[in-house]
Each structure stands twice: as structure tokens, then as C-alpha cells.
Amino acid sequence: MVSFQTLPAEILFKIARNVGGAYLRARVDRILLCKSWYNVTRSIVWEDITLSIDSFERYLQAPTNMQSIVQSRVKSLSISGRYDNIAITLPPPSETETAHQESQHLANHRISLSALNTTLCNSLTTFSTTLLPQAHNLHTFTLKLSSQSTIFTEADTKKT
Predict the structure, then answer these.
(1) Which runs of consecutive H residues, i.e. helices, occur in the chain?
(2) Residue-range domain boundaries for the chain
(3) Phi/psi class of residue 154: alpha, beta or left (left: φ > 0; alpha: ψ in -120 to 50)?
(4) Predicted confidence pLDDT, tens digits, the chain (160 residues)
């Protein structure tokens, strides 16, 4: 009977491809079964990556050697999620609350969202100018951002 360790690299590669990088990345013991399996899976683990906004931010803060490993192997990269996913709850207006207090709550909410937007824009700029050009094997890049925030607009009062 053939053991897992004696299978040819081509067979191990097909098995790893069918299992998928996301499954292998979920737990390190799935990669460290044996030396021949590790040698094959280390290239497949980082080929297809999907990041949430939070994990994207953590990736940008990862050590340079970890970023280099991912950049050298990634073929498909997707970043998606809500960019305004912050826990801001406006208290229900009370009878004693003034319009000014309600406006202040909304202004604070807008400031928080603006800060998040600025942070995300800076992160995407850093990524696109310094890290993305080094991903030589990258074939597909997808960016999907959504917002659940209320969009505040101000009426133009100028008469033309």
C-alpha cells in the first residue's frame, strides 16, 4: 500500500489544489502533515486569497517577510466588506433632547465615518503603491466595498 508520504509531488499538488488554499490556511496542522505535503501546499496556500476590510488592515501591519511570502505566491486577491462597520448607536431622542443635541450626535457620527474613510483610503493607497506592484503572479484583483451609512447631503441654496 502506498503511503501519503510516498505519493509523487504531482499527485499531492492535485490533491492540495482540490482541497483549496482557504481550507489549508484555516489550520496550520493541515499543512504540516509531512515534508512532501508541506513543500506542495506552501505554494497553493497563498494562491487565492479573500480578505475582509479588517483582515486587510491586519495584513498591512504584518511583518514584511509575511507580506513577501503572500505577494510572491498570490494569483487571485479579493478584498471586500463594509468600510463603515462601526458601532455607533444614536440614542433615541427624548422629549427633553433639543434639536442641537440630536445634530451633535449626527455630527459625531459623520466625523467617525470620515476618519474611517480616510484610514481606508490611506491603507488602499499604501497597498496599491508599495505592495501590489510586487505581486508579480497576481492575475485577478477584486475590490468590493459597501456602505450601510446614511448619506447626508446638503441642499444647494444658490440661485442660478
Answers:
(1) 9-19, 21-26, 35-44, 53-61, 64-73, 99-126
(2) 1-45, 48-150
(3) beta
(4) 778 788 999 999 999 999 999 999 899 899 998 899 999 998 899 899 999 988 998 999 999 998 998 899 999 999 988 776 554 555 555 656 677 777 777 777 777 777 778 888 899 999 999 888 999 999 999 998 887 665 444 444 445 4
